[in-house]
Amino acid sequence: MNPLIIKKMVQGLTAVFSNKYVIIGIITFVVFFTLKGGVKKFLKARREKQFNEDEIIDAHQIAQQYRGATNPSGNSWFIDIDGTDEVSIDRLAYQTKGHFEQISNQYKLGFDETLTERMRIELDPDEFQAWYNIIT
Ligand SMILES: [Ca+2]
Prior knowledge:
80% of the residues lie in helices and 0% in strands. It is mainly α. The protein has one domain: Orthogonal Bundle (Annexin V, domain 1). Helix 2 packs antiparallel against helix 3 (86-96) and helix 2 packs across helix 4 (100-111). Calcium ion binds at residues 70-71, 79, 82-84, 122. Calcium ion is lined by residues 70-71, 79, 82-84, 122.
């Protein structure tokens, strides 16, 4: 290319890029897209956090419902003699499927015994097997 043409082009570009409106436009453009990416990431992270919290709340709630079904009197001293709400346990089994570990952890945290132990005590062997088949 002719050096004179190159020189003209450089001068032209220098003129364009030293125009404050062009510079403001470029900065606005860059800031906008940087922020847009940041905002998207922020929203995504918040959604995921919310999702995880919902899961924990559900597991906690289901663990509480297991306790209610195995301890209908509400008095933990009577848990072994106050009977069992098998209908509720059957319903809970379907909600437990795929979340057993979380629910079992929540149950252990809340009641200092494992959910499986409690189910063995409350259910007869056939019922226990049926419950186990649903959750796994
Ligand atoms: Ca009981």
